[in-house]
Amino acid sequence: MTVDLTGGLDPIDDLPLLEQPAEQATFGENHAFWIFDRDGRYYVNTHLNTIESHWPLRRERVHVSLPGGRVLANVAEGTLTAADGPGAATLTARCVEPFRRWVLTYAGSMLDTTQAALADGPVGEGARVLVRWDADIIAAAPPFRQGGTADTSRAMTDTDAGRFIGGSRYEQLFRAEVRFEIVGEQSFTFSGTGTRTHRRGTRNVTGYAGHDWQSALFPGGAGFYFMRFPRADGTLAWSEAFLLHEGRILPAVVHSDTWLTSRQLAGEKMPIRLRSDLGETVIEGETLGTVFWPMNPEPPNPLGRPWGIHEGSDAVIALSQGWARYTMNGETATGLCERSTFVHRLESES
Looking at the domain assignment, is residue 341 inside a domain? Predict the structure, then answer.
């Protein structure tokens, strides 16, 4: 069966903008890739964001989770964006064929820390290691488009979800081959799956109270995605879900899942129930690890201390960018588990 991997989008929409749209000083763009080792040992997270006031400058945020709770992390700014893909200082993403294949390349130093240290509090500079890695990204399905149904599109307009998401946005499940080297220490390769996203527009997170975002691609080609935003009082403000079934994207509804409530790094059970035209789909999830960082700390987060949980006013948000093992219809896969909430609502690790 031939699948249209563009999902009806124009191939040019997958490429980076080289200039900010005229008279739109707050307009930004982000390309991001989450890669999960098939066996659950490694996890790579990358973002390439425009700095809206200084085009064509982009900021890269990269972190890599290794066995034993070790985390390598880096933030830098640069101008390596080209017509075929975004780039910053040490990370580039290049599009070989829109919506089908990308190549990521990284060469630079990274902060050497741990998941536990990041969950405990802010982490500043420390020991660094030299790292080189690259990844081949091969699309496995058409993109999920946020606001991709009449109901979710209308709900994005009627709630704060549209400005939290920040314009037009889609995400696409993929398979990946990664080659990784910590210079003078170790080299390894792994096969995995992942999620990539591309966003364009103006983002405003004033009043943001957290989120719940999960997805995975299974060996047989099935998959799922959902995203939810709560209000500050805990009630549900917006929810969207899709299932990937036999190459088709089916709208779904989240009937149950778990919000972020603690600093627990791994081992949290996450039963999920989605309802679609297929009936009820039950997904059993269990967290494998997480990297904490502050989404919108107060005062604003300086570039030199971007990692770990920052405590402060009741408005400070803790972002948990983790990964999980999911089981659906007898298949198992590792995938994305990103959640956030107010720091003051987090319990100690249990």
Answer: yes
